Amino acid sequence: MSNTWPGLRERMAAGGLLDLADHLVLSCEVGCAKPDRRIYELALERAGAEPELSLFIDDVAANVDAATALGMAGHVHTGARDTLARIDAFVRDRGVRARGDGS
User: Fold this and answer.
1) Which of 60, 84, 59, 87 is nearest to 73 (CA)?
2) Bridge-partner residues for 56, per DSSP?
3) pTM above 0.70, yes or no
4) Of 9, 10, 13, 75, which residue is most buried, by most CB within 10 angstroms?
5) Which pLDDT tens digit goes with each residue over 15-40?
6) What pLDDT is stored for residue 96 in this prediction?
């Protein structure tokens, strides 16, 4: 999900980047932008994801706040080390919940 301008999809395709994600929600294509709740809902719908099983990462706190208001986990990106640690913790926590064993 990105707040962006027309032409980004084509530039990403030219750079071979479209295969990095299953879905790409671009504000210029969908008519709304972060932190509008509609763009988050659309992204969740396209991904077939439940908010409570989703982690939203952004470098703008207001965008993360909008995601958490919808029930997603959130993280404000300030650096790669902290963001990767947050992703690891999120995945680890979800694995424990899926197993139901509390370990």
Assistant:
1) 87
2) 74
3) yes
4) 75
5) 999 999 899 999 999 999 999 999 99
6) 57
φ, ψ of residue 56 in degrees (nearest 5): -110, 130
In 3D space, the residue among 63, 58, 3, 56 whose CA is nearest the CA of residue 29 turns out to be 3
Helices 61-69 + 37-47 axis angle, to 10 = 60
Sorting pLDDT into bands at 50, 70 and 90, what band is 95? Answer: confident
Which residues face 76 on adjacent strands? Answer: 58
Question: What phi and psi values does residue 55 have, to the nearest 5 degrees?
Answer: -115, 125
Tens of pLDDT, residue by residue over 50-88, are 999 999 999 999 999 999 999 999 999 999 999 999 999
Measured CA to CA, the distance from residue 62 to residue 49 in angstroms comes to: 21
Total residue length of the chain: 103
Name the token pair of 13: 């395709």
